[in-house]
Design a protein that fits this description.
This protein has three domains: about 80 residues, Alpha-Beta Plaits; about 300 residues, Peptidase S8/S53 domain (Rossmann fold), CATH 3.40.50; about 120 residues, Immunoglobulin-like (Sandwich). It is built from eleven helices and 26 strands. It is globular and about 60 Å long. The chain binds calcium ion (3 copies). The site of one calcium ion has 9 residues, from loops.
């Protein structure tokens, strides 16, 4: 019972592995259920008086025995159930702190000023899934996202998504289109990500201008449910958000929540999640969504002004990725005010804001490339050694300017990867994929896909159009039939030419020799830097 948290009384979430059979849909009414979501193969419903109210009296301790019994009853009436679980309670991870400091120390710590010499604005939509956002705040209003197909305040659901007048986002706690913050937590997060800057007032956000989508599912006490979080995540995906800030969580390993995270993963969306404020090892006492294994999650711990892990911050070499400033952070709160908050909730938007700024600089990259840029350029700190996987604290300037080498973090489904011309890829599933090559220099090549026996299955042309010194990304134009392939493949770059501006080093020459030896067509000179990365389609 312990460690599984609290649940909403009488509410259950049911998932179907296939589209819900008609019989099940008919039975929804008799169970007093409503569809929560219908995406792809998953239909989630919440039977038994689904309620958007969330008073303390409606919450109870999770009781596995009771849940098991209720789910057994539900399964009898609904065929085709993949899972059944209680609608678990999720909570904001903040620790309000009443000590004032004269400045935003966190921005200095992550080298934001140097980063702002290069880039200050982002076009990437960041969804703040939280207590809402004070969209009237003078330091936030200008940076709010606007739903392009919804006419404000006309009482009509213009874009036909089931929510009336959802202009800045939506409210999945009250079931309306108005995500106005009634707590401050979400507004504080919003200010760190994209507080309006250079306007002679208040604070500066990591993005001086940006697009904040406000999705409220936590109530005025900072509490909400999995059902609300799932709706918010699906809204964000549907409306084109690329980064989701999740400064909340809970101990219940919800399948419905993870399914929503997986839908985001498939849509190429990055989730930045707070590790939690219990001061625990999250590897042993996981909090979700931060501790889910999905490749699109960055889990964030909090550090203080002296680069120590905050006393309240969770850690974990398996489940926590990076640290960011999270103690005495000054930002916007509701009703137009400012205040200092502490928590992994405050560290998380530093990373989400960084992701938006970096992604705006490299708009053709995948979430995994952006994640890699952020994690691999973090400042390694002795205070974080052995505590979190990157052992580092966010460095915005380095994330924006440095390109991490590919050897350190190969894409998860690539079996082996080296900066030569041969790559072995294992595709265990038939998911649609795109391929990108990173390169310096310019030239042309053919990318050949070989099967295990070394027989060429197909070949794709690849152009490297630029000739300056910076790292570029080129998409490999893969024939349609090959986008959903299964099995083990080798990839070869043949007829490969690359002009390199820098003088050749010994290593590059050695590498070139090796590549020539292995190449299918060794007529060309090979040098320069080539990395291949595999990403899911988006
Ligand atoms: Ca609408
Ligand atoms: Ca409208
Ligand atoms: Ca300002």
């Amino acid at each position: 019972v312990f460690g599984q948290g609290k649940v909403i009384k009488g509410e259950y979430i049911i998932g179907f592995s296939e589209h819900a059979p008609q019989a099940a849909l008919t039975n929804l009414n008799s169970l007093n259920a409503r569809p929560l979501n219908q995406k792809g193969s998953l239909l989630v419903v919440s039977p038994f008086n689904f309620s958007t109210t969330n008073k303390e009296s409606l919450v109870e301790d999770y009781n596995p025995e009771k849940a098991k019994a209720v789910c057994k009853t539900i399964k009898k009436q609904l065929p085709g159930i993949a899972f059944c679980e209680p609608n678990a309670v999720l909570s904001a991870f903040n620790t309000p702190n009443d000590t004032y400091f004269p400045k935003q120390w966190g921005m200095k710590k992550i080298k934001a000023e140097k980063a702002w010499d290069i880039k200050t604005s982002s076009e990437v939509i960041v969804a703040i899934i939280d207590t809402g956002v004070d969209y009237n705040h003078p330091d936030l209003a200008k940076n709010m996202w606007h739903n392009p197909n919804e006419i404000p305040n006309n009482g009509v659901d213009d874009d036909g998504n089931g929510i009336i007048d959802d202009v800045y986002g939506a409210n999945f706690f009250a079931g309306t289109g108005d995500p106005l913050d009634d707590n401050s937590h979400g507004s504080h997060v919003a200010g760190v990500i994209a507080g309006v800057s250079n306007n002679n007032r208040g604070i500066v956000g990591i993005n001086w201008s940006g697009k904040i989508m406000a999705l409220k599912f936590l109530n005025s006490f900072g509490a909400g449910s999995v059902a609300g979080a799932v709706s918010a995540i699906d809204y964000a995906i549907a409306k084109g958000a690329k980064v989701l800030n999740c400064s909340w969580g809970g101990p219940f390993p919800s399948k419905a929540l993870q399914a929503a995270i997986t839908r985001a993963e498939k849509a190429g969306v990055l989730i930045v999640a707070a590790a939690g404020n219990s001061g625990n090892d999250s590897d042993k006492n996981p909090l979700y969504p931060a501790a889910f294994k999905n490749s699109n999650i960055i889990s964030v711990a909090a550090t203080d002004e002296d680069d120590n892990l905050a006393s309240f911050s969770n850690y974990g070499t398996q489940s926590v990725d990076i640290a960011a400033p999270g103690v005495n952070i000054l930002s916007t709160i509701y009703r137009g005010y400012y205040y200092y908050f502490s928590g992994t909730s405050m560290a998380t938007p530093h990373v989400a804001g960084a992701a938006a700024l970096v992604w705006s600089k490299y708009p053709n990259e995948s979430y995994s490339q952006i994640k890699k840029r952020i994690l691999n350029t973090a400042d390694k700190l002795p205070t974080l050694k052995g505590l979190i996987s990157s052992e580092g604290r966010l460095n915005l300037y380095k994330a924006l300017t440095q390109t991490p080498s590919v050897e350190t973090v190969p894409p998860s489904n690539v079996e082996s990867l080296n900066i030569q011309n041969m790559y072995t890829l294992t595709f265990n599933d038939a998911v649609k994929r795109n391929f990108y090559v990173e390169y310096e220099g310019s030239g042309k090549t053919d990318v050949k896909f070989l099967n295990k026996a070394g027989i060429e299955k197909f070949s794709c042309p690849l152009n490297f159009p630029d000739s300056d010194n910076s790292l570029k990304t080129a998409k490999i134009k893969i024939p349609k039939f090959a986008k959903r392939m299964k099995g083990v493949y080798e990839i070869a770059l043949s007829s490969f030419k690359l002009k390199v501006a820098k003088p050749h080093r010994k290593r590059a020459a050695r590498r070139a020799k090796k590549i020539r030896k292995k190449s299918l067509n060794n007529s060309s000179k090979i040098c320069g830097k080539i990395t291949l990365s595999l990403v899911n389609s988006f």
